[in-house]
Write a structure and sequence with these properties.
By secondary structure, the chain is α/β, with parallel strands linked by helices. It contains 15 helices and 19 strands.
Length: 459
């Protein structure tokens, strides 16, 4: 796709330069999550967009392309304004972007980002960027937030049923690459998941974390079977297919995952893994991860663990919950979302099975089954300087008070460990957590992945 930022907008944005009051020299806008599914958001992803799109200058060639397309499209084109940016700023956008630190866990209804033009001739530019900028924030933040809340649920059950939480970083694996709308979406959403966990099969996410956040290796995976690599052996050779997985990948300290329901999960557990290959599993020195992949997850997981315990035994941990031997574990990757994770873990708890026994793989529900309204994201203008005077800009629809927007130039402060969004003029010496990250083509703050993970740590 084109990296021409002029064309990275809604069509109607092209006419807005003619719609502001005469004498408008500055427009300030902000981004917030107004509510929705979660009470707190994990802010993430802005730096990826800035590095990929805003560090590349607009050229006269870009302006030429946009002129042809937008005029043919039937909307006005601000050719003078864009050529002014190319000639005056060598194509770098004269805007300042402020944001809270990436990884910040912030209650909804607080500003996360604030944008303002830095050239009085470009007041139209602030809102022109809304389409691209809002999309760059709402999607990765919503994925990171979904992942974060799954982590809170898993952590709670580990604390209740396991000796410790050391395995938490690998308890939710990203299976979502094939379900994302594009490779870029998989990269952005997958990187957002890695803010909270260290397991992924989305290679694009690893690349994004390296490219945009200096993460040498942000996530890990293991050898794993899919149905085709098992069923290609034929049903009569199912045991040989499983044995081959052990021969190829098992060993001291190693993990290998094998999907085991291509035909009959219970037969695979009780006769193949639990009898024919039991000695190889126990003597490998590593861990076999059995993956059921069909049926009702809430009942299938607990029953899978129960039947494995009948074959391989179990130990009681310090909290009185049963744990499979180290040589065998389970991963559930079908039908997984934050609600089913909790339901599965609750069922296991009732049956005295420790959360240590299970890991989860989450696909479409992690990277795709969400939208801008999941957390009611919006970017709104809140202040404008007109004829030299600052004015509040806001909406307050009588038909939906939930869409009431904030007023004035904004700041975010922390008071008694609580985040609050206030007017910038009311800071009174307090630290504004909306810090400048981009100014006139220059990145002013460069987050690394380690710091972001620290910011987003589940407490």
């Amino acid at each position: 796709m084109s990296k021409n930022i002029i064309l990275n907008a809604d069509s109607y944005k092209a006419s807005h330069f003619l719609q502001y009051p005469q004498g408008t020299t500055e427009v300030s806008s902000y981004i917030e999550a107004r509510g929705g599914r979660f009470e707190k958001a994990v802010f993430f992803g802005l730096q990826m967009f800035i590095k990929e799109y805003l560090t590349q200058p607009v050229s006269h060639k870009d302006v030429d392309e946009a002129k042809i397309i937008l005029q043919a499209h039937g909307v006005p084109f601000n050719e003078q304004g864009w050529r002014y940016i190319v000639d005056t700023y060598e194509g770098f956008l004269p805007v300042e972007i402020q944001a809270v630190s990436e990884g910040t866990v912030i209650p909804v209804q607080n500003a996360m980002v604030q944008v303002i033009n830095t050239d009085p001739n470009c007041a139209w530019l602030t809102s022109y960027l809304e389409t691209a900028l809002l999309r760059a924030v709402w999607y990765p933040t919503t994925v990171a937030t979904t992942s974060y809340h799954c982590k809170k649920v898993i952590k709670r059950y580990l604390e209740e049923t396991a000796n410790n939480c050391q395995s938490l970083p690998f308890k939710l694996h990203d299976f979502g690459a094939r379900g994302a709308t594009s490779e870029e979406a998989a990269a952005i959403g997958g990187a957002a998941h890695l803010v909270n966990f260290m397991g992924t099969d989305t290679l694009s996410a690893i690349v994004a974390a390296r490219r945009y956040y200096q993460a040498e290796m942000a996530g890990f995976s293991i050898p794993a079977a899919e149905h085709s690599t098992i069923t290609s052996w034929g049903r009569h050779n199912e045991a040989k297919a499983y044995a081959n997985m052990l021969e190829q990948f098992a060993g001291p300290g190693k993990l290998v995952a094998v999907v085991s329901d291509s035909y009959d999960l219970w037969h695979a557990i009780e006769n193949i893994w639990g009898e024919e290959l039991k000695a190889q599993v126990e003597d490998s020195g590593g861990t076999l991860v059995v993956r059921p992949d069909s049926g009702d997850p809430v009942t299938i997981v607990a029953e899978t663990i129960e039947r494995l315990m009948n074959k391989f035994g179990y130990q009681l941990n310090d909290k009185g919950y049963r744990v499979l031997p180290d040589c065998i574990r389970v991963i559930q990757g079908d039908g997984v979302d934050e609600k089913s994770i909790e339901a599965i873990l609750e069922t296991m708890k009732v049956r005295k099975q420790s959360a240590e026994n299970i890991a989860f793989g989450m696909g479409g529900a992690l990277l795709q089954k969400l939208d801008r309204d999941t957390m009611k994201f919006a970017m709104k203008a809140s202040a404008a300087k007109i004829q030299g005077l600052w004015q509040d800009v806001y909406k307050d629809p009588v038909t939906d008070k939930g869409k009431r927007s904030k007023r004035g130039r904004l700041a975010v402060v922390k008071v008694n460990d609580q985040y609050r969004t206030i007017r910038e003029q009311d800071l009174n010496g307090r630290k504004n957590l909306l810090e400048t990250v981009f100014l006139n083509g220059v990145i002013k703050r460069n987050h690394d992945f380690k710091t972001i993970r620290t910011n987003a740590k589940v407490k």
